[in-house]
Structures are given as structure tokens and as C-alpha cells.
Amino acid sequence: MALGYVRPARPEDVAEIARIQLATWRVAYRRMLPKHVLDNLDEAWLARNWSAAVEAPPSERHRVLVAVEQAEQSYLVGFAASGPPDEQALAPNEPADALGPNVVAITDLLIEPRWGRRGHGSRLLAAAVDLWRSDGFDTAVAWTFDGDTATRKFLAGAGWEPDGAARALDVDDMLVPQLRLHVSLEA
Description:
Blueprint: E1 4-8, H1 14-28, H2 35-39, H3 43-55, E2 63-70, E3 74-83, E4 103-111, H4 120-134, E5 139-145, H5 149-157, E6 161-171, E7 174-184
Parallel strand pairs: 4-5
Antiparallel strand pairs: 1-2, 2-3, 3-4, 5-7, 6-7
Helix pairs in contact: 1-3
């Protein structure tokens, strides 16, 4: 188990969050998404979006957390973003109020592959759950790529299971299937 901790993201973390997202997607999703789509992702554009999420979140219940590994120096190794569900959390044709006010949606939970299997994902998820409970959420949802067995196994190990919702993302004329997982946050 690595020495590490989780903390809220800071504005100075934004560039590293974008770099981690890009590096992780290019490794983890290389067999699920078209290569040219991954190659053309713009790190500066990602950083601008993360800057908005970190510096001016839509509500106090929207959070970006980072995982830090401690060694001779500290390294940002992953992050998690979550908040009340918006239309991106819904399944196709699902009504806008289907998930309810006590549901939180994970939009991202990524650990850079070179730092994987060292407990960072578990620390991120545990810290997020503590915050979700303090925010009054009783259920969490997350979309995963059907082919992302690592994320699905990780979340299943923490009690998450499919809720029956599915969709396919259109990524440059390629349909990429996703499943929505959920978990109760009640102690």
C-alpha cells in the first residue's frame, strides 16, 4: 500500500488533472475509443474545463478531489469529480427528475495507470463517500464503458452494481456502450 492521501483540488492542480485525464484515457480506453479521437484530445481544453470545475463549481455539492502519493516528493496521481446529477447522468429517455435530489453522480474517477493498484482509487472513493454522506446524498451513480472491466471490477468490489440503465455514446460515428452502476450510501 502506497503512502498517500486525498484532498480537494486546488487551482494549481488543474494542469496536472488534465494531463492525468489525457494520459489515462489514452492508455485505458485505447481499445474502446477510436485512436484519432484520443490522439486529438486537447490538454489545454481539458485544463480549461477543469479550471472551471475547481475554481467555480456549480454548487457546494460539486467536488473535485485529488489523490496524492507521498514519496521523497508528492505526486498528483488521480482525481475524482462528482456532484448532483445533470442530464449527462440520465439514461436515454429517462425523465429529468428520475434520479432525485439525494443522488450524486460521479463524472470522473481516474488514477494514472503507472500509479494504479496502490490504494489511491480506494482512498478517493472513500473520501468521496464521506463527503457525499455529509452532503445528504443516499445513492451514487456512475456510467462506465461496457469494455472497461478494470473500473467495473473496482466499483463492484465496493458494492456498486448495474441499475439496469444502458446507453451508447456516439464517438465519431462509433457507438460505445455504457452501463450505469449505483450504490447505496447508507451506513
